[in-house]
């Protein structure tokens, strides 16, 4: 459901985002622009401020200073559901999915399609749209009607990403999307993430896995102790340079 | 794009017809109900007579009406220990208002409805506000309502029961609506049976066909995921408690117009009958799974056991032992079937 955006407007634009907790500065003047269809990785050591930034972009925290723009328009989020209605979808590490329900119901949970005249659930349409979406993203599942508990971990994360993609008009935010997955499943999920480029939403992916960053991201931005160290195109930076920026140690 | 042989993860099993049938939540209860029916029919020739069946249905309906609200609540992940005394509270409210203010009994009926819904809303509100478990919150309201029932009744009437409402204006109409005998093919069936059936149909429709139904399953099965997906979990749970309140009011009005007086100490322990009906009917205590039809079969099992023991001329002393054993057997059976049919589906 991506809205058409001209190439010069950014899906997400962060200007001078700052967050204080009492006397502690968690994020200091963070800037970032993500184009539609671009995948940007956010990396940093533990305590660097990644989670704080994720919570600001997903509406859980309000920044102390700075501006958030979605598709060019300045905005602020009252809470996560507000951020969601404005077009930011989050894929959580712990998969916010309902095990006992079928795939299509998970896809439409909270935004169920209804049919006339009584406003009853349109299961057929939801299943059809889900099938079309998982086919497009090549999430390989037995059926859109299969209960979620029948799927493997990788398939589930694929569904979570497909769901976020389906509803995000501006940005898909992924917090360690493959942290809980095995090697083969991680590879599958990465393929799905890369396929999001064609769908036009911006993607911000938080990852601890440097190989993954190099495999999927177009650009990478580094946080160290609340300060933005650098933002680079992925082909401008080597593995060792990235590690050096994250740790602050020169090799 | 994807090729057929890649679609299936080799660790994920397929499901046959057998498995799909046996993951239905009602199936264990249905099997138990059939066995029970055959046993009582064999032991007692009276059991299968039409008049006996009508009596069994009546007994089942008095539990079944409440089991509708309680089973939905349980699918939503919560329990209500105050459901038993809430029925008495509701009946007392109507009777005491009629006694104290005089006038038309329907003012009492109306106010009692408001009070019953308010008690439900309060339970739900306290639960979602305090984030305590529903066991604690409704245990507290169970005790408070029990005390209120006795205290207020004694304060207003000086006794432990309300005076008869038979003379009050509006009584005849109330009796017609809440406690009528409906002749069907020469058999007299209590009107509560029809209310029960209607509630089961409505609840099943809500669960299967509406967004709210979907939210009930999600709120019970995975509240965090539901919240993250934008489901109004709090409102859903409060609504479920209000639903229990409505069922309590309906049953209370039947009791009021059928028996004309209300004993203020009644209702204690009945909450467990409703829970038994829901659980025997396949609802999971942990939420997210179950059906209103299952709970109705659970109530039917209760009705058959209650009256069957009498028709078979066994000692009714054993009824509760039987109910407990039934609960255990049905639950174990349910879980066994579901595990077998859908490995990994029930955790």
UniProtKB/TrEMBL annotation, chain B:
GO terms for molecular function: transmembrane transporter activity. One of its GO terms (cellular component) is plasma membrane. It holds the Pfam family BPD_transp_2. The chain crosses the membrane at residues 21-43, 55-74, 81-101, 107-127, 134-152, 184-207, 214-232, 238-259, 271-298, 318-337. Keywords: Cell inner membrane, Cell membrane, Membrane, Sugar transport, Transmembrane, Transmembrane helix, Transport. It is found in: Cell membrane. The keyword Cell membrane applies. It is a multi-pass membrane protein. Its main location: membrane. Part of the binding-protein-dependent transport system for D-xylose. Probably responsible for the translocation of the substrate across the membrane. This is Xylose transport system permease protein XylH. It comes from Mycetocola lacteus. The lineage of its organism: Bacteria, Bacillati, Actinomycetota, Actinomycetes, Micrococcales.
């Amino acid at each position: 459901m991506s809205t058409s955006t001209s190439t010069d407007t950014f899906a997400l634009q962060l200007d001078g985002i700052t967050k204080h907790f009492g006397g502690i500065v968690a994020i200091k003047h963070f800037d970032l622009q993500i184009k539609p269809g671009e995948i940007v990785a956010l990396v940093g050591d533990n305590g660097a401020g990644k989670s704080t930034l994720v919570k600001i972009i997903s509406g859980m925290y309000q920044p102390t200073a700075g501006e958030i723009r979605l598709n060019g328009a300045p905005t602020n989020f009252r809470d996560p559901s507000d951020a969601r209605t404005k077009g930011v979808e989050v894929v959580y590490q712990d998969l916010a999915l309902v095990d006992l329900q079928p795939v299509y119901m998970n896809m439409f949970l909270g935004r169920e399609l209804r049919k006339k005249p009584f406003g009853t659930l349109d299961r057929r349409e939801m299943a059809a749209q889900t099938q079309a979406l998982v086919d497009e993203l090549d999430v390989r599942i037995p059926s859109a009607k299969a209960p979620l508990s029948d799927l493997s971990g990788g398939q589930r994360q694929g569904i979570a990403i497909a769901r976020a993609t389906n509803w995000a008009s501006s940005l898909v935010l992924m917090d360690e999307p493959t942290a809980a997955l095995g090697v083969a499943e991680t590879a599958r999920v990465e393929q799905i993430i890369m396929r999001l480029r064609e769908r036009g939403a911006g993607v911000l992916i938080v990852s601890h896995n440097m190989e993954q960053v190099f495999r999927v991201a177009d650009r990478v931005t580094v946080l160290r102790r609340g300060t933005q160290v650098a933002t680079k195109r992925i082909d401008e930076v080597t593995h060792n340079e990235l590690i050096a920026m994250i740790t602050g140690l020169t090799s | 794009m994807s090729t057929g042989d890649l679609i299936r993860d080799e660790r994920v099993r397929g499901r046959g017809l057998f498995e799909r049938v046996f993951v239905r939540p009602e199936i264990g209860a249905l099997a138990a109900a059939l066995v029970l029916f055959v046993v009582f029919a064999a032991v007692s020739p009276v059991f299968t007579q039409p008049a006996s069946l009508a009596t069994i249905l009546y007994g089942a309906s008095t539990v079944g009406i409440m089991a509708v609200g309680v089973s939905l609540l349980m699918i939503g992940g919560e329990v209500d220990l105050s459901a038993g005394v809430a029925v008495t509270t509701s009946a007392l409210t109507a009777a005491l208002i009629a006694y104290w203010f005089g006038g038309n009994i329907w003012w009492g009926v109306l106010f009692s409805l408001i009070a019953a819904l308010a008690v439900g809303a309060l339970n739900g509100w306290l639960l979602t506000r305090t984030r305590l478990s529903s066991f604690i919150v409704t245990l507290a309201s169970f005790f408070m309502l029990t005390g209120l029932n006795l205290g207020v009744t004694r304060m207003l009437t000086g006794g432990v029961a309300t005076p008869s409402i038979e003379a009050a204006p509006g009584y005849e109409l109330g009796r017609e609506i809440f406690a009528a005998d409906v002749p069907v093919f020469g058999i007299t069936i209590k009107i509560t049976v029809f209310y029960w059936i209607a509630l089961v149909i409505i609840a099943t429709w809500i669960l299967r066909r509406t967004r709210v139904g979907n939210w009930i399953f999600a709120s019970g099965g995975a509240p965090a995921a539901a919240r993250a997906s934008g489901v109004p979990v709090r409102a859903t749970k409060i609504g479920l408690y209000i639903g229990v309140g409505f069922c309590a009011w309906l049953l209370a009005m039947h009791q009021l117009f059928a028996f004309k007086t209300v004993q203020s100490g009644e209702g204690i322990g009945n909450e467990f009958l409703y829970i038994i009906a829901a659980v025997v009917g396949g609802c999971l205590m942990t939420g997210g799974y179950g059906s209103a039809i299952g709970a109705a079969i659970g109530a039917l099992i209760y009705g058959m056991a209650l009256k069957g023991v009498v028709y078979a001329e066994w000692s009714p002393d054993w009824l509760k032992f039987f109910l407990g054993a039934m609960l255990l057997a049905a639950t174990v059976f349910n879980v066994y079937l579901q595990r077998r049919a859908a490995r990994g589906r029930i955790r």
